[in-house]
Specification:
Strand content of chain A: over 45%
Helix content of chain A: under 10%
Oligomer: heterodimer
Number of strands of chain B: 11
Structural class of chain B: mainly beta
Distance between the termini of chain B: 37 Å
Number of strands of chain A: 11
Largest sheet of chain B: 7 strands, mixed
Strand content of chain B: over 45%
Radius of gyration of chain B: 13 Å
Structural class of chain A: mainly beta
């Protein structure tokens, strides 16, 4: 069984401030981990993914995430928030060989304050 | 990158009617597709796995007679919500596995049953 927990359903940051969205996972086997972004009334876009290569993963739009096995975490960060980053972010996990059957966290809505 | 197209993006229907949602892989073949549902302020939950040429596999608690899935070709899966009721109002989204670890998501369908 696998699951992800996202702490904080809403996060507000000022424009230019650090963005930190938290995700902890639980998996009985080494996981693949993902962050997706969902803009209003749109589908999901992959931001980045961890698949057992480098533990620090860089994604699109300046986001990055670090896989920490000891903490079972995969937090998403961005040094400087832009207004266009306002969206909902989902952490997700899938098991190797799981044919991309994805288990999502509950999502974190990011608000960027000008 | 691979593209999954989902149609319609929004639909409003009367209670008791049926609604069909299409999910197409535009530039690749998908023998497997996944259907998810997202209730307001909740995460995306896997409903079923659609298999080309065979019966879909439903997650526990999902009524197979209510949510009919057909995967008639390598590029098209359809989800039909039969005899829709207001409690079926939700955001439905499909995905298809790409090469390797990534899943590609459609744009989603916002269903409102009145």
């Amino acid at each position: 069984a696998q699951s992800v927990t996202q702490l904080g359903s809403h996060v507000s940051v000022s424009e230019g401030a650090l963005v930190l969205l938290r995700c902890n996972y639980s998996s009985s086997v080494p996981p693949y981990l993902f962050w997706y972004v969902q803009y209003p009334n749109q589908g999901l876009q992959l931001l980045l993914k961890y698949t057992s290569a480098a533990t620090l993963v860089k994604g699109i739009n300046g986001f990055e995430a670090e896989f920490k096995k000891s903490e079972t975490s995969f937090h998403l960060t961005k040094p400087s928030a832009h207004m266009s980053d306002a969206a909902e972010y989902f952490c997700a996990v899938t098991s190797r060989g799981g044919y991309q059957k994805v288990t999502f966290g509950t999502g974190t809505k990011l608000q960027v304050i000008p | 990158g691979a593209v999954v197209s989902q149609h319609p993006s929004r639909v409003i229907c009367k209670s008791g009617t049926s609604v069909k949602i299409e999910c197409r892989s535009l530039d690749f073949q998908a023998t497997t597709m996944f259907w998810y549902r997202q209730f307001p302020k909740q995460s995306l939950m896997l409903m079923a796995t659609s298999n080309e040429g065979s019966k879909a596999t439903y997650e526990q608690g999902v009524e197979k007679d209510k949510f009919l899935i057909n995967h008639a070709s390598l590029t098209l899966s359809t989800l039909t919500v039969t005899s829709a009721h207001p409690e079926d109002s939700s955001f439905y989204i499909c995905s298809a596995p790409g090469r390797g670890t990534e899943a590609f998501f459609g744009q989603g369908t916002r269903l409102t049953v009145v």
